[in-house]
């Protein structure tokens, strides 16, 4: 049972963090308070360690997974990254430009990223209470997650992420250009003490995934892509006991108010599976963008979507090849007429 003292400690995290008189910076204690019983239980349940930074502490979880396996980025993916970086440089303000797009060619500089937040709409009051990152290591995927036990640990988490991005400044996300990264940029700005980490590149897989698979699936939710395209069970995980995404903010608020830690442990597992799904999705797109000869195991609708995606990027020859392969596999009459 949660003690009254534990509940009070975590409820206080729901209030704004106080600043010292005459200062516009948030003040942090030099020593982190001892963990509550529930915090200690949470750390044990998710296999976390306490990380200490100059801003305080937070929980950190690391796991290595043999699947999805590392796959070297194809010329098609590298070209997509360079096109993305080039278009961003032309349109962005100077502080938003990518620092070194050439690093996009080196997968050792890539960092997969996914966040769990206190709100799904974003905004200045939304916190990324769990930040998950992953990178290729020893042929598999190393996953690291930073969890805020309360809002006062945000600076510590953001500093840790900043250090990882200094090592691997090329982001790979799924809807991260629209949601995750703008939210994190905003949180960094609001700290007034941790600069926004510069990126060397950013590849968002949502847009090519939507182009390729939405015709057949009607949706491009990552969980559906895992089930119908990636075969996540074969890769070693499934979503049988997954937590609903729309409930994740409430699970965190319930935890802060003294609720059970079990749902929050489920959120950590959900985030870890999202990162593995993101890496597996990259592998699938890498395969499609890296070949001119398409297997009969592909679906005609998927190849037709790929052909339109390639056509919009000006790759006419590859678009025609994918379109021909799609017609050979069979297309609905309206689409087959378009493909002629």
Task: Spell out the blueprint of helices and strands.
Layout: H1 4-11, H2 37-46, E1 49-53, E2 56-65, H3 75-91, E3 110-117, E4 128-137, E5 140-147, H4 154-167, E6 170-173, H5 176-191, E7 201-204, H6 206-217, H7 222-230, H8 232-235, H9 248-256, H10 262-289, H11 300-312, H12 316-329, H13 333-339
Parallel strand pairs: 3-6, 6-7
Antiparallel strand pairs: 1-2, 2-5, 3-4, 4-5
Please supply descriptive tags for the structure shown above.
340 residues, Nucleotidyltransferase, domain 5, alpha/beta, 47% helix, seven-stranded mixed sheet, 13 helices, 14% strand, 2 domains
Please characterize this protein's 3D structure.
- The chain has 13 helices and 7 strands.
- By secondary structure, the chain is an alpha/beta fold.
- A hairpin with a 2-residue loop joins strand 1 and strand 2.
